[in-house]
Amino acid sequence: MTSLEFDRISVRYGQSTVLDDVSLIVPDGEVVGLVGESGSGKSTLARAAVGLAPLSGGRILLDGAPMRHRGRRRPVQMVFQDPFSSLDPRMTIGASIAEAMPDLRTRGARRTEIARLLELVHLGPSRAGHLPGQLSGGQRQRVALARALAGRPRVVIADEITSALDVSVQGAVLNLVREMQRDLGLSMLFISHNLAVVRYVATQVAVMQDGRIVEQGLTADVLERPQHDYTRQLLAAIPGGAR
Hints:
The protein is of the alpha/beta class and about 240 residues long.
């Protein structure tokens, strides 16, 4: 894995500024949480990192070098909020994962790697022959994580990956994220509007409001001793608080 740096990123669409001079670092082997209300610019920053939102200013760096989106292998992989929309309903789970592999190699090697990835996300290899519609929402999100890892990324961006799931399923997916970070040394930008979720998985947190980072630091420091009014408002909006 490696570090991902957003260096004074701006994104504009016409006269509308969606991101304004955003700087943020995802250190090697850490999970950084990005929080904010809907429309704050979180997902636009994620899309910029994978080349889906054009930059109006600034740079995106991997280990200090400008990131390039070329060829089959992508150094940053993204897991989207809705796992069903990110998977082809006509492709089997195994075929979908294989499609994301940078080098197809032999058929036997592909089967072995698909089985390894499915076991990594706690789905049995027998699921490889299933279609997305035969799986639950939580299982599809696990497949989406396996598919992202199949691309051998240097950084994974998870964009609201638990918000579409039942509360009972969210915990299992969050535990999986923590396990992956521990076992793989995963570098991840974890985007969520839920401060309690971010507190559970992230070592650092950044708070975004109206396209700007208004506060960032160690998760415990930011959530227990918030310095910005907007962070305090987000905390106050959570029943029982996130502390």
